[in-house]
Specification:
The protein has a domain at 42-126: GMP Synthetase, Chain A, domain 3, CATH 3.30.300. The protein is built from four helices and five strands, in the order αβββαααββ. The protein has helices at residues 6-36, 69-73, 76-89, 100-104; strands at residues 40-41, 46-54, 57-64, 109-114, 120-126. This is Lipoprotein.
Length: 134
């Protein structure tokens, strides 16, 4: 290994660590701000119950209080329509003041739609760097 490159590797490693730490701090702040206002109505009788760290992502659990996974599995066309609608609705999170710094830092947000028993219907994701910058 060329010893002249060693300082370059050290700087790159430090920059990478700082970037990850900044994202982690932004996520923790977003979690605290989000959970301070939860549980809260989402739409159509759904409730956003909590926000938490899911790996490196910020995850929002949204509960269908009056539905069960088995009901939706019996109607795959309805499940597909709901998933498409919610995937499109993820862009709304770009305007959420609690999430803006986290999203601007490259964070990913997932909404997990669960039934009354906590079983997963589906997830919708807002990928990193999806929000307009202005």
């Amino acid at each position: 290994m060329n010893l002249r490159l060693l300082p370059l590797f050290a700087v790159l490693a430090l920059a990478s660590a700082c970037q990850g730490n900044g994202l982690g701090q932004a996520r923790e702040a977003a979690l605290a701000a989000s959970n301070a206002k939860l549980p809260a109505p989402y739409r159509d009788g759904l409730i956003t119950e909590r926000a938490y760290a899911g790996g490196v992502d910020l995850v929002l659990d949204i509960r269908f209080a009056d539905a069960r996974v088995a009901q939706l599995e019996a109607k795959p066309h309805l499940r597909d329509a709901l998933l498409a609608d919610e995937t499109e609705a993820m862009a709304e999170l770009c305007a959420d003041a609690a999430l803006k710094p986290y999203l601007a830092a490259g964070g990913v947000v997932r909404r997990r739609f669960i039934d009354a028993d906590g079983a997963l219907f589906f997830e919708a994701t807002l990928p990193a760097n999806s929000c307009p910058t202005s």
